[in-house]
Amino acid sequence: MTPPWLEQYASGQKTGYAQAFMAYAEYYGVDGSADDDPEIEERIAMHRQPLVGYASRTGTRRNLAALKGADWRLLVSAKGELRTEGIDRYALDNGAWTAYQLGQPFDEHAFSVAVERLGERADWLVLPDIVMGGMASLDYSLKWLERLRGMPCRMLIAVQNGMQVEDLASLLSPAVGIFIGGSTEWKEQTAHVWGSLARRRHCYLHVGRVNSARRIRICAAAGADSFDGTSVSRYAKTLPRLDRATRQRDMFAAAHDGLEEAQRATADLLI
Fold it and tell me: Which branch of life, at top level (predicted)?
């Protein structure tokens, strides 16, 4: 099931943020094409905005007020209540992690309903994946990427243990980005690699399940655009410390590398 409003974007009757940004990036050679063809020149430097924190959806007024005050955004799960709680900027999670924790199969219907209700105005959405599923997860995500072609928001592919850089490289662009999933240990060990790949392809980079200042620093070093976590949704008192960590820029992040440097950082690398 696809949203009834999607056809207007897929046919070109409407232009969403992802399509508009992709056209802009293509014009300036920062759509990933320079990574494919050395004859193409990147005509401008793409600078990432400050790291953005997304908190898992909560209905607690005190915590919501704290999130709004700090300009954090909301991550709404397809397996939860489909409400944005008055927060304008939000992203849509597919609910696979929640289903995995509960020992349940992925709920395609719930995800489809969530996309129909909230997908059009989301910052981005995570394509359905198989937690810890390796290449089977990538194949599953690609089926949904085709099914949702034309989405006005960015779509992110969840990377899992067992995936390699070149499995994804040709799929990525300013409209299709990376969501770093997988095990916690693997996530921390490989974040810098995915950061270099995101620099090569000029794609969005998000890191899932980040609940400490140390992990936020890992995200910053990788050049991530954003991260999500549950800590501030549950305990508002943790927000000031985590928010301070998001505002500490990493001058040596992978996002600041030149294209050739980013290519060298991911060449012949097994993760």
Answer: Bacteria
